[in-house]
Amino acid sequence: TAYESSLGLVGSEMCIRDRQSRSNSVTTVLTGEIDVSELRRIAESEAGLTLGVGLDEFADRAIRIGHMGHLNPPMILGTLGTIEAALTKMGSPMGSSGSAAAAATIGAAL
C-alpha cells in the first residue's frame, strides 16, 4: 500500500507485520525514537492533521492513521506529506521521501 511504501523514510515500520491481520480502517505505525507526542502536536496544531495515539504498550512509540470511508490519492498523499513536514520541523532524520514513495505506489496502481 501507499502507507507501507512511505515507512522507510524515518526507520518506522508497520505495527502489524502480517498483512492479512491488518485493519482496513486504520494503519498503526511504530515510530522508533521519534517523540510521538511532539509529532502529533505539530501535525494537529500547526497543520490541522489529527494522528491517533498508539494504544497500550505502543502509546509512546506509535501513531495511528485512520482511513475509513471514501479515501482518494490526494488524501493519502496529503496525510503523508503533512507527517513528513512535521518530522522535518522536528529535525528527525529521514532517508528518501516517503511521500514520493507513496506517489510511486499510487501511480503504478492508476
Brief rundown of the structure:
The chain is of the alpha+beta class and 110 residues long.
What structural class results from the helix and strand content? Answer: alpha+beta
| Spatial order of the strands forming the largest sheet | 1-2-4-3
* Rg from Cα: 13 Å
The overall pLDDT average reads: 83
What percent strand? 5-15%
Order of helices and strands: HEEHEEHH
How many beta-strand segments?
Answer: 4
- Helix content estimate: 40-55%
Which of globular, elongated, flat, extended, rod-shaped describes the shape?
globular
Task: Characterize the structure shown.
With 110 residues, the chain is of the alpha+beta class. 43% of the residues lie in helices and 13% in strands. The chain has helices at 2-6, 36-47, 73-90, 98-109; strands spanning 13-14, 26-30, 52-53, 62-66. The chain has a four-stranded antiparallel beta sheet with strand order 1-2-4-3, with no helix packed on it. A hairpin with an 8-residue loop joins strand 3 and strand 4 (62-66). Helix 2 (36-47) packs across helix 3 and helix 3 runs antiparallel to helix 4 (98-109). The longest helix has 18 residues, at 73-90. It is globular and about 35 Å long. The model has no long low-confidence stretch (mean pLDDT 83).
Characteristic key phrases:
alpha+beta; 110 residues; 4 helices
Architecture blueprint of SSEs:
Blueprint: H1 2-6, E1 13-14, E2 26-30, H2 36-47, E3 52-53, E4 62-66, H3 73-90, H4 98-109
Antiparallel strand pairs: 1-2, 2-4, 3-4
Helix pairs in contact: 2-3, 3-4
